[in-house]
Amino acid sequence: MTATLPHPTQGTGRVVWFTGLSGAGKSTLATALYQELQARGEAVELLDGDAVRENLSKGLGFSKADRDTNIRRIGFVAGLLAKHGVTVLVSAISPYRDTRNEVLATLPAALEVFVDAPLEVVTERDVKGLYLKALAGEIPHFTGVSDPYEAPLTPDLHLRTDQISVQEGVQQLLERLGLGEA
Ligand SMILES: Nc1ncnc2c1ncn2[C@@H]1O[C@H](COP(=O)(O)OS(=O)(=O)O)[C@@H](OP(=O)(O)O)[C@H]1O
Ligand SMILES: Nc1ncnc2c1ncn2[C@@H]1O[C@H](COP(=O)(O)OP(=O)(O)O)[C@@H](O)[C@H]1O
Fold first, then answer.
1. 21 is annotated as contributing to ligand binding
2. 160 beta partners
3. pLDDT in tens, 54-99
4. Is 19 helix (H, G, I), strand (E, B) or coil?
5. pLDDT, tens only, 117-133
6. Predicted ipTM?
7. Is the minimum distance from the CB of 22 to ligand 2 under 6 angstroms?
C-alpha cells in the first residue's frame, strides 16, 4: 500500500533566505536575527552554509550541480521545519537565480534577503582569507571571482552592508517580518 504523505512544505513558519557573496554579511546578520528572535521566545533555527556543508551536504563541492544540490537540500529541510511553525534562517551564497527561485517557490512564506556588498569591500574584509587565495588562482570556481553570482532581481529586502550597520540590518529585517523595533 502506498501511504499518502503531506506535502513537505505546507505550514506556517517563515523562511528568511539570506543570499550574497562570501563575506557579504549573511552569517553575521542571520546570527544577530537568530539571537533577537530567540530572546523574544520564537521557535527559530539557523541553517548556515558552513554548518550545512559539514553535515547535511558533506562531500559536495562548488560546481553548479553540487551548489544546486546543496540549495535544494537546505530548502527541503527549511520547509520541514517551517511546517512545524519554526522561523528558519538560511544563510548560503545560493548564487544561481533559477535554483533560488525554484526552491523559494516551494516555501509558503519565504523572504529573500539580498545581503549586498561590492566585491572590493568583501575582498577587503576577506573574513576567511579566501579572496586572497581565489584572486591568486588557488581556489577554482570561487563565487564573484571565477564563478558567477546572480543577484536577486526583486529581493524582499536589499541590505547594503557596506552602508548600514549590523544593528540597522537587524532592524530592517524585524520591520520586514512585522516584528517592529529591536
Ligand atoms: N569556490 C568557492 N566559492 C564560494 N565559497 C567557497 C568556495 N570554496 C569554499 N567556500 C566557502 O564555502 C562557503 C559557501 O558555501 P555555501 O554552501 O554557502 O555555498 S553555495 O550556496 O552552495 O554556493 C563560503 O562561506 P561564506 O563565506 O560563509 O559564504 C566559503 O567560506
Ligand atoms: N552591516 C553589516 N552587516 C553584516 N556584516 C557586516 C556589516 N558591516 C561589517 N560587517 C562584517 O562583515 C563580515 C561578514 O562576514 P560573514 O557574516 O561571515 O559573511 P558571509 O556569511 O556572507 O560569508 C563580518 O566580519 C562582519 O562583522
1. yes
2. 116
3. 999 999 999 999 999 999 999 999 999 999 999 999 999 999 999 9
4. strand
5. 999 999 999 999 999 99
6. 0.98
7. yes
Confidence at 1, pLDDT banded by 50, 70, 90: very low
DSSP 25: S
Q: Which atom of ligand 1 is nearest to the CA of 62?
A: 1
Residues with Cβ within 8 Å of 125's Cβ and at least 6 positions away in sequence, in order, are 23, 117
Query: Cα dist. 144→43, 132, 140 in Å?
Result: 34, 13, 11
Q: Is 49 in the pocket of ligand 1 (CB under 6 A)?
A: yes
**Which ligand 2 atom is nearest residue 31's CA?**
17
Give the containing element (helix H, strand E) for 33.
Answer: helix 26-39
Q: Hey, is 17 helix, strand or coil? A: strand
Three-state DSSP at 6 gives coil
Answer whether 73's CB lies under 8 Å from 56's CB.
yes
